[in-house]
Amino acid sequence: MLGRVTCPKYLDPGSLVVYVHIDGIIVPHILIDIGASMNVMTKETMLKLNLQGSLRKTTTILQLEDRSTLSPEGVVEDAMVSIDSWEYLVYFLVLHPKTKFNVYPLILGRL
Predict the structure, then answer these.
(1) Which residues contact 20 (CB under 8 A, 6 or more apart)?
(2) What pTM does this model have?
(3) Hey, where are the domains in the chain?
(4) Which of these, 29, 31, 48, 40, lies nearest to 95 by C-alpha position?
(5) CATH architecture type of domain 18-108
(6) Tens-digit pLDDT profile for residues 64-79
(7) What's CA 67's distance to the chain center, in Å?
């Protein structure tokens, strides 16, 4: 151990929460989960952003960790999401949760 240089250990920053623009509307408190392979939006958020015109039905069924299943309301295709100076066309699975989901209106996975 003598004479060896060790790198400093950094703390885990936790969940990354940012502000994004979707079709020109600022949406605060967006959770970015790099481990997720999909983007999720609540039905309430979809209605607030006026994206119901681009909602497409889907046959996808999600199996949750407790082995229960959930059918999404549909998929919102090609929503323009701006983070800082980067713009992405994103697909969102629209979920209608059984309980009030006020913490994060959107969860962005790998873009």
Answers:
(1) 26, 27, 30, 81, 82, 83, 106, 108
(2) 0.74
(3) 18-108
(4) 40
(5) Beta Barrel (2.40)
(6) 888 988 899 999 998 8
(7) 21
